[in-house]
Amino acid sequence: MTLSRRAFVGLSVAAMALAACLSPPPETVIYLVRHAEKQAGDDPSLTPEGLARAEELALTLKQAGITRIYSTDTARTRQTAAPLAADLDMPVDIYDASDLPAFARQLKAQTGAILVVGHSNTTPSLVEYIGGAPGTEINEAAEYDRLYVLDITGENVRTELRRYGSPYRP
Questions:
Q1: How confident is the model over 89-132, as pLDDT tens digits?
Q2: Which residue in 6, 55, 136, 162 has the most C-beta neighbors within 10 A?
Q3: What does the pLDDT look like over 41-74, one tens digit per residue?
Q4: CB 53 within 8 A of CB 81
Q5: 91 vs 63, 68, 73, 114, 141, CA distance in Å?
Q6: For helices 100-108 and 123-130, angle between their N-to-C axes, nearest 10 degrees
Q7: In whole angstroms, what is the distance from residue 43 CA to residue 41 CA?
Q8: What proportion of the chain, given as a percentage, has pLDDT over 90?
Q9: How deeply is 131 buried, as exposed, middle or buried, from its count of CB atoms within 10 A (0-12, 13-18, 19+)?
Q10: Which residues of 20-29 are buried (b: 16+ CB within 10 A; e: fewer)?
């Protein structure tokens, strides 16, 4: 019994689809953002635009299966993480941005979906320490919509750069 060309193509497509479904899902997904728009001053709070962006981040990640939320110990980063933490009824754990290599090792040892809120001068470095591609430097004055997504399976790290909320216009 021989297969027709059409049947053979159909079976080949089905086999490829099945193989794609069998590839292991990421063990860990780490979402990294810098804080939202901030006011001026020492340890500033978020502006009204920043508070709206923090709400947008919560909407963006509400269905992502977040299991842990980290923030540096500043008002602007804690306020950026707060809406999602409230929606998911989970604490925001404080991390020390002065030792990013150690924090990267800690993150890579975890499984699940994790949000990390940092700063324009720490987030790309943390992405790199985890093994991802940090991309271009974050524009300190205006770029608040960058969302890194790092899919980690074993030693493999895949980086995706997304945007959320009001778009950045250089």
A1: 999 999 999 999 999 999 999 999 999 999 999 999 999 999 99
A2: 55
A3: 999 999 999 999 999 999 999 999 999 999 999 9
A4: no
A5: 17, 8, 13, 12, 29
A6: 50
A7: 6
A8: 81
A9: middle
A10: eeeeeebebb
Q: What is the DSSP letter of 41?
A: S
Give the burial string for 135-164 (b: 16+ CB within 10 Å, else e). eeebeeeebbbbbbbbbbeeeebebeeeeb
Backbone angles phi, psi at 20, to 5 degrees: -65, -35
Q: Which helix (H) or strand (E) holds 148?
A: strand 146-153
Overall residue count recorded for the chain in this entry: 170
> One-letter amino acid identity for 167?
P
